[in-house]
Amino acid sequence: MAAIAAGVFRRTPIERSDQRVAWDRTDQAFFAAGACHILAWVCRESYPERSIEIAGVCLPGQRQVFHTYAAWDGWAFDHSGWNPEPQLLAVNTDFEGQPLTRLKITEGLADFCQKHHHRMPNQYWRDPRPRARDYIGRYIPPWA
Q1: Which of 48, 88, 110, 142 is the most buried if burial means most Cβ atoms within 10 Å?
Q2: What pLDDT score was predicted for residue 1?
Q3: Separation between Cα atoms, residue 136 and residue 43, nearest integer Å
Q4: Beta-carbon neighbour count of residue 134 at 10 Å?
Q5: Would you say the C-alpha torsion 131, 129, 31, 84 has a positive or negative sign?
Q6: What angle do the packed helices 128-136 and 36-46 form, to 10 degrees?
Q7: CB distance 61 to 100 below 8 Å
Q8: Out of the domains of life, which is the source (predicted)?
């Protein structure tokens, strides 16, 4: 699957305020907007033998990460599966209509969530980690 901008799947006001409604979206929509950080961390945990980093993008001059993904050796994994990282960045830049800043995320999930106002797994309607593991399993990693 070719990379698709995360913004295509932005949550509606009701999806932002009601975790059950957000949960009921398709897996791709759920992991594109609202749980991308969970998907990224679970991806890294799923391949402990790889040096997978967590990366995020934000608008220029801003520190608020609006999309998070796993990155490894020039590849990126997000709601679109595995794609070359430059392609992922390009589709998001095109969608947002301005250049984006890529950030390497070095803190753990809890600190990231606190710093960037993202939900921890226990703050979703249900635990999203099993759903993320299933989603990751649908995609063949680039090293396979």
Answers
A1: 88
A2: 77
A3: 7
A4: 11
A5: negative
A6: 60
A7: no
A8: Bacteria
Instruction: For residue 128, give the amino acid letter.
Output: P
Query: pLDDT over 90 for what percent of the chain?
Result: 93
Beta strands of the chain (E only): which ranges? 53-58, 67-72, 75-78, 81-84, 101-105
Task: Give percent of the chain above pLDDT 70.
Answer: 100
CB 22 within 8 Å of CB 119: no
The structural domains of the chain, with segments of one domain joined by +, span 6-136
Look up tokens 């998001």; give the residue: 92
Quick one: pLDDT at residue 144? 87
Q: What is the pLDDT of residue 93?
A: 97
Q: Tell me the two tokens of residue 103.
A: 């950030």
**Smallest Cα–Cα separation from 98: which of 57, 63, 59?**
59
pTM score, whole prediction: 0.96
CA torsion through residues 68, 19, 4, 52, sign: positive
N-to-C CA span, the chain: 17
Residue 139 — pLDDT band, cuts 50, 70, 90? very high
Structure tokens at 71: 């990155």
Vertex 50: Cα angle to 70 and 109 (nearest 5): 45
